[in-house]
Amino acid sequence: MNDRKLKVAYFLESLVSFGGVERVLTDKANYMAIYFGFDVYMITCAQDPKQENAFLLHDSVEQINLNVHYYEQYHYGYPKRLLVRRKIEKQIRQKLSEAIQEIDPDVLIGVAHFKADLISKLPCRAKKIIESHETRPFTLSGMSQHRNFLSSAYMKLYRQFYFWTIERHADVVVSLTTGDANEWRKARRVEVIPNFSLMPIEEYSNCDAKRVIAAGRLSWEKGYDRLLAVWEKVSCYFPDWELVVFGNGNLQESLENVIKSKNIQNITILPPVKTISHEYANSSICVLTSYYEGFALVLLEALRHGVPCIAFDCKFGPRSIIEDGNCGYLVENGDIEQFADKLCSLMENDNRRMQFSLMAVEHARSFDVYGTMIKWKTLFEELTA
């Protein structure tokens, strides 16, 4: 490498959404550019240059928007959709190859849930890393939902070939947890590097506010149907408490219909906010009811603000963040009654919330940004030596 700056290029769908993946990739890119002095590039596939990023990139990080209208294929039915998809895929490969040829990066990083097969075998000298932000068993799992038999069978084969391509061609797969790393054991090399949070904290929760917070996109995997079932049981016993959900997504209308039809009290769904730190500080409990999680950044953010957390023990994220009975509770996955009981016990016990709050701040310090980023730097240096 001599004295030349290390060049790192990320490829992802877009940086528009207020999601955990977008937040942590932005934070990592900024850190590498500022503290390691790397030349960092963020290449987005489907983002229009006029669209603003959800999170601010440092001036030294260069963003390249390929501006491929990826979702046009869904305007058509089969078999025309397959022809349109093929045309779009060719356009992505061509534009991405041109960008990579111009940048000539040392390391090229993709995310497992978007075009990771393309990244893994893209002709270039860069070492290929695929980040698994969702658990492997659930990556692209939504592609086979609500389909007929033949379509579902095709998508099953597609996923198998997709993973085979990653595991055969990518230099490294990076998982956020040991559990997910075990799912990628057929890959050429697997590393575990957890996420971190750089969210500035101006105030901590005193756990006095009678408010429960949840955050994340309003989609199936986040399990908001389970959250509504829990809150329906809890809210009638604690009419002075409220549940506030921050997120948007394709399930918002159906969730609001359930709330209205079942007359579930004291629950509000609000759009994502950039100042969610203030919302954590004004909450006393954070809940997460996902069916699966790669890491569950929202839990770490809540703990850093001194907010105790309750989550289903789903694969694989919550267990790697919550110390059960210390800074929150892990609940057997899918057990609505147990979740409601744990939530009630925290809502009615002020001293326990305060005790969990103190331990939460202490435990969150173990997710050290410097230690995590040094692991990334070491990995890059090993691959490019």
Task: Walk me through this protein's architecture.
It is a single chain. This protein is an alpha/beta fold. It has 2 domains: 7-196 and 368-384, Glycogen Phosphorylase B (Rossmann fold, 3-Layer(aba) Sandwich); 211-364, Rossmann fold (3-Layer(aba) Sandwich). Helices cover 41% and strands 17% of the residues. It is built from 13 helices and 15 strands. The chain has helices at 20-35, 80-103, 116-120, 149-169, 178-183, 224-235, 252-261, 276-281, 297-304, 317-321, 336-348, 350-364, 369-384, and strands at residues 7-12, 39-44, 62-65, 107-111, 127-132, 172-175, 190-192, 211-215, 242-246, 267-270, 285-288, 292-293, 309-312, 315-316, 328-331. It has a 7-stranded parallel beta sheet, sandwiched between helices. Strand 6, helix 5 (178-183) and strand 7 (190-192) form a beta-alpha-beta unit.
What's this, in brief?
The protein has 385 residues and is α/β, with parallel strands linked by helices.
